[in-house]
Design a protein that fits this description.
The structure is a single chain. By secondary structure, the protein is α+β, with helices and mostly antiparallel strands. The protein is built from 40 helices and 39 strands. The strands form 8 sheets. An 8-stranded mixed barrel has the order 32-33-34-35-36-37-38-39, surrounded by 5 helices. Helix 1 packs antiparallel against helix 8 (about 320-345), helix 30 (about 980-1000) runs parallel beside helix 32 and helix 33 packs across helix 34 (about 1055-1065). It is flat and about 160 Å long.
Length: about 1200
């Protein structure tokens, strides 16, 4: 008989086989889990890489917005940049942004001007940036300077930084410039960074106009770069909280510029961000250790490698626990089988021991349950399915007053009144039917003392061994005190609701999202919204200009601060502003946390209106007193008591609230010259008893003098003695000053303050009388400013007045004490010098005057140049009275103008004849204008290539009435300009030429008309507008009209001439420079003004074939005009040789007697029908 296997050995073999099978299953399931882990990790890494890419793209999008701002068509200003960046709220919307900047490209020759402009730029900071400078200040062909920085705080170190000095930044800037794309730096330490973190700067170029296609074009037209400066750690700090980063560590490597062959190898030197730089080695299981994935992304022109590693913490995938669960399940199963077999093999003794131990444990558990039941502080009872009590705990005995041994076997009817017992039994019946747990809240008398108590019965069924419901266990909780507290709380709440409803204060409760949860009737009445309209909404009652203020108050209240009453304004439903007082209190929950804010608002409009009315009344009273400058006073003669109002303090130069003093102390401020008058007046008033009035002066502590008038009454007793004096004092300083000003105005010029004509004549008479007595001489200098009328008409009368005041100041510098300078009016001044020793002294003063006036006047941004013409008459040789000396000095002044201006002339007897002739000519010109004695002649302009007539120059002729000889323009034009008649004469000529030109145009002859315009006409305000009206009135094509101006108009007029000529050119009218070459205009003026034609002066053309210098000048003018695209006309062509010479030079247009003389409009009409060849033969 074979020996049998012992049961213990069979159990052991079974256990070993199960363990082996469990390990095999664990291995294969683990391998599959590893493959799933790798796939999930790669997907998660790719999602995380896309999230990093999108995060950087947000900052690139910000750059494109800044680039659009910088390229919007006009010069980007510091204020534009600041307002744009502020509106973006970059610090809140773009985590990790250190700064936004504009890097300006500055050529070396403009560096100094650029630094000066930044230092003086006060658009954001008063006073500008006086310490701004380039850093480092190295010499370069051009500079890339950080100009705009937002915010400036914390980024001061970058302001003025030259980007060339920062290697990575320079490389990024150059690549961005050449590609036109945003480019970032590599691993980069920011200038602002003091820690160990890295930064990233992204540059986007800004070009002038559209981005050029070629690299060379981009390098030439780049004007700067907009940049964002990022702190890498802060940029990605919130990104790492995304679920895609759960269980993942990220390291970022910068491998160099994208598309660059020399790519860096990832290593410690390339890492610029690591989410867990000091992570320990992984402690994961065999199948999840070492997960790694690399993602290469091109970001901001750089190649980034994003390296992802599994986090040391256990992964959370559904597959992760499968291997371990498989192993555990197998091992547990093996152990169970082993245990079963061991149990079968165990002896009966062991089974009996186990049963004995179980019995002891059961008894112990029953004892524990009873102790636990007794420890419960609430009454606990048991009852069977029949409704009889089986037992209770000690708390039940004490609360109900029934011993435990008497309690067993009772029913609810034995301990409660029937009505309450019925309810209890019915509730038990339902619970026994359904099973489970149930609560019953009731109010019933307590058996111990009959007191009514609010009680909750929490009941649950229990089952027997068969699983059937055997009875109920219940816990009794007395809630009488809680109910009482709830009632008191509800009563308090009701009282509070009544107060809220009845109070005249608006009460508004808002949560942290600004939603309204309380809006009482007072709020409805004050603001106009019903509660139903605003509850649950964020309706605002804060005016726009106070939103920032209330936001700060709300934040403080939400932080737990009580905001005391403040007077402010709120806005009603109709938009009107309401004066209110506001208090804000935080509302806290049971844990002490603030969950809302309560605002109480009082309508103080009535109070404010009353305050305003009171203030206005007090202000009117105060203004009336101040306007009257009054002070009341009272003096008791018997007691010598002196009282007065606060106004008297003010009148005597003391603060209104100063302590009252004795009248003798007030007398200390009396003017020394008026003290005797004051004392005498008071003394006589007291003695004679007569009312009095006295004007006197006071000297204030600051030295100013004020006039006071004092009126007083004397009150006497029965015995005739003075008892008291009562009076009123008033400030009459303004009246006295007005009287003095009126006296001054009667004898002085209002603009300059100089003596006027009345005072001048008196000064001349005094000087003559003094010279007559002393046997001396008197010089009278008559001064007229040259070009003042042009400045006054073109730049405006206010500037002209400033110029006259400046001239007066300079004239005073030239004189001695005792000399007189007077303004007669306009731009005429007269100087009187008494005690003059001969003509040399007068000449010396005149020379000094010309010298000081020759310097430019810088007024209101204009550099003005005027000169003077001075006429001198001497007493007694040129006259023995004021009128004669003035008249002769005036005559000498006109001769100074005729002599070329900016000089002086002494009067001589023959000047009277010339003056009379000039006056006669001016009168004749006025009559000629009224009698239509002027006529226009026209001289043709020829195209030298085919000798065809291309245009006509209008020339003015004067045919005096009565058949006299015609007067040439050179004889009457200067007088017309001097007298101002050139303006109406010029306007007549302009109108007539345009009318005649339109007539020829209507006949099919499209010839342009050239018309001379004087400097006086051009500089007068409104000339372009008058020309526009004449063009519309005559209907002539503006393209057939050309205005000729002299070089003097260009050189001397400059600013005003440029403005008028620009407006004329805008009408489509051509502009020509007449007599070119005789002045000083040159190339610079041709480039600066809208010139279409230059006319070479005949003085150069006359000797062009014999004088090499004239030939060279004409050649240069033609070449210069051609290079500038300006037409050339030669004047005064008198020979065929001259004509041929000009043709060979390339001058295609000319005029002169050789071609055709000036002729009337009728003769021109005939000429236009004659072939060009026959005209040349005449």
């Amino acid at each position: 008989m074979k020996p049998s296997i012992r049961p213990q050995n069979l159990a052991l073999v079974t256990l070993l086989g199960g363990v082996a099978l469990s390990l095999a299953a664990w291995y294969f399931v683990g391998r599959e889990a590893e493959r799933q882990a790798e796939a999930d990790f790669v997907n998660q890494a790719n999602l995380a890489a896309s999230l990093v890419d999108r995060r950087i793209q947000r900052y690139v999008d910000l750059l494109y917005g800044l680039e659009a701002l910088a390229s919007h068509g006009h010069e980007l200003t510091r204020r534009d940049f600041n307002q744009h960046v502020t509106a973006l709220q970059a610090a809140r919307r773009f985590p990790g942004i250190q700064a936004t900047q504009f890097v300006r490209r500055v050529p070396a020759d403009k560096l100094s001007k650029f630094i000066t402009s930044v230092r003086t730029d006060a658009s954001l900071v008063p006073g500008g940036y006086p310490r701004f400078d380039l850093r480092p200040a190295e010499k370069r062909d051009e500079y890339w300077v950080i100009d705009f920085v937002e915010p400036m705080v914390g980024n001061e170190a970058t302001f003025g930084l030259e980007v060339h000095s920062r290697g990575p930044a320079r490389q990024a800037v150059e690549r961005a410039r050449d590609t036109g794309e945003p480019v970032g730096t590599g691993r980069y330490r920011l200038v602002q960074e003091k820690g160990a973190s890295y930064g990233l700067v992204i540059y986007l170029p800004v070009y002038e106009g559209i981005t050029p296609r070629s690299v060379e074009g981009r390098r030439e037209l780049v004007s700067g770069w907009v940049t964002v400066v990022l702190r890498i750690d802060d940029v990605f700090s919130d990104v790492l909280s995304s679920p895609v980063f759960t269980g993942t560590r990220l390291a970022m490597h910068d491998l160099g510029a994208a598309h660059w062959a020399g790519r860096a190898v990832p290593g410690p030197d390339t890492v610029f961000f690591n989410s867990s730089p000091f992570a320990e080695a992984s402690t994961l299981s065999l199948f999840t250790r070492g997960l790694h994935h690399d993602v290469d992304r091109e970001i901001a022109g750089r190649l980034w490698r994003l390296s992802f590693d599994a986090d040391p913490a256990p992964a959370q995938g559904w597959w992760q626990p499968l291997p371990m669960l498989t192993l555990c399940a197998g091992l547990i199963t093996s152990l169970l089988v082993y245990g079963i077999l061991r149990a079968i093999a165990s002896s009966r003794t062991e089974a009996l021991d186990t049963a004995s131990r179980a019995t002891r444990d059961l008894r112990s558990q029953l004892s524990f349950n009873q102790q636990l039941l007794e420890a419960i502080p609430y009454p606990v009872y048991f009852k069977n399915a029949a409704g009889r009590y089986l037992g209770c705990n000690r708390a039940f005995e004490e609360d109900y007053g029934i011993p435990r041994d008497q309690f067993v076997g009772l029913t609810p009817y034995d301990i409660l009144p029937k009505e309450h017992a019925d309810r209890m039994v019915e509730d038990d019946r339902k619970l026994l039917e359904t099973g489970g747990v149930h609560s019953l809240e009731t109010r019933a008398p307590r058996p111990k003392d009959g007191a009514m108590r609010d009680t909750i019965f929490s009941k649950s069924t229990f089952t027997n061994a068969d699983g059937k419901v055997a009875g109920i266990v219940g816990v009794v909780v007395d809630i009488t005190d809680r109910k009482a507290l709830e009632a008191r709380t509800e009563e308090s709440h009701e009282q509070l609701r009544a107060i809220v409803q009845a109070t005249p204060l608006a009460i508004i409760v808002r949560d942290f999202d600004n939603r309204i949860s309380q809006w009482n009737p007072a709020a409805e009445r004050i603001f106009g919204w019903k509660a139903s309209e605003v509850l649950g909404t964020a309706t605002s009652i804060v005016p726009p200009h106070l939103k920032q203020e209330i936001a700060g108050m709300r934040e403080r209240a939400q932080a737990g601060e009580l905001i005391l009453i403040q007077e402010t304004q709120r806005m009603a439903r109709d938009g009107s502003l309401i004066d209110v007082s506001v208090a804000i209190a935080p509302l806290r929950d049971s844990a002490g946390r603030v969950y809302a804010t309560m605002v109480t608002i009082a309508d103080i409009r009535e109070r404010k209106e009353a305050e305003r009315a009171l203030g206005e009344s007090e202000e009117r009273l105060k203004l009336a007193m101040e306007a009257a400058h009054m002070g009341l006073w009272y003096w008791d003669a018997a007691s010598d008591d002196f009282t007065y109002s606060d106004g008297l303090n003010v009148l005597f130069g003391r603060p209104a609230n100063s302590p009252h003093v004795d009248y003798r102390a007030l007398q200390d401020v009396l003017h020394p010259d008026d003290q005797g008058l004051w004392h005498a007046t008071i003394r006589h008033a007291v003695k004679d008893g007569q009312d009095f009035q006295i004007d006197y002066r006071l000297v204030y502590p600051d030295g100013s003098v004020h006039w006071i008038t004092n009126r007083g009454q004397v009150h006497r007793g029965p015995d005739g003695r003075a008892l008291r004096l009562v009076g009123i004092a008033m400030d009459i300083t303004e009246r006295k000053l007005a009287e003095q000003r009126i006296a001054h105005m009667a004898h002085h010029d209002a603009l300059t303050g100089l003596p006027n004509r009345v005072l001048l004549h008196d000064r001349i008479r005094q000087a003559i009388a003094q010279a007559h007595r002393a046997g001396g001489e008197v010089a009278v200098l008559f001064i007229d400013l040259d070009r003042f009328k042009t400045i006054n008409d073109s730049l405006g009368h206010p500037l002209g007045d400033r110029l006259l005041q400046s001239v007066a100041s300079r004239l005073l510098v030239c004189l001695r004490e005792g000399d007189t300078v007077s303004r007669l009016g306009g731009d005429e001044f007269v100087i009187v010098i008494p005690g003059m020793s001969g003509a040399s002294g007068a000449a010396s003063v005149a020379g000094k005057i010309l010298e000081v006036l020759a310097n430019s006047f810088h007024l209101q941004g204009h550099d003005l140049h005027v000169s003077a013409s001075v006429g001198i008459a001497l007493y007694p040789s040129d006259g023995d009275d004021a009128d004669t000396l003035m008249r002769h000095a005036d005559t000498a002044m006109y001769h100074a103008k005729d002599a070329g201006r900016a000089n002086y002339q002494f009067f001589t007897p023959h000047m009277n004849v010339a003056a009379q002739q000039r006056l006669t000519l001016e009168n004749a010109l006025r009559r000629a204008l009224d009698n239509n004695e002027f006529e226009l002649y026209y001289q043709p302009l020829y195209d030298l290539r085919d000798r065809s007539i291309t245009g006509l120059e209008a020339l003015l002729r004067w045919n005096p009435r009565g058949g006299g000889e015609p007067v040439l323009p050179s004889q009457f034009i200067p007088a017309a300009e001097e007298s101002g008649l050139i303006v109406p004469i010029g306007e007549w000529a302009l109108r007539e030429a345009l009318r005649q030109g339109k007539a020829w145009q209507a006949e099919g002859r499209a010839l342009f008309i050239a018309i001379n315009v004087s400097a006086t006409q051009l500089s007068r305000a409104g000339f372009p507008e008058r020309l526009r009206r004449l063009l519309q009135e005559t209907g002539i094509d503006p393209a057939l009209v050309e205005l000729e101006v002299t070089e003097r108009v260009i050189v001397e007029g400059m600013g005003e001439a440029r403005a008028s000529l620009d407006q004329v050119a805008a009408l489509g009218v051509g502009i020509a420079i007449d007599d070119f070459g005789t002045g000083y205009s040159g190339l610079a003026y041709l480039k600066r003004f809208p010139i279409d034609t230059v006319k070479i002066d005949q003085s150069f053309v006359r000797d062009i074939t014999v004088d090499p210098d004239d030939a060279a000048i004409v050649t240069a003018i033609v070449a210069m005009a051609k290079s500038l695209g300006i037409d050339v006309v030669a004047e005064g062509v008198e020979t065929e040789l001259q004509l041929e010479f000009l043709r060979q030079l390339g001058c295609h247009r000319a005029q002169g007697f050789h071609l055709a003389r000036p002729m009337s409009a009728r003769d021109i009409t005939k000429l236009l029908g004659t072939p060009p060849a026959s005209v040349a033969a005449d």
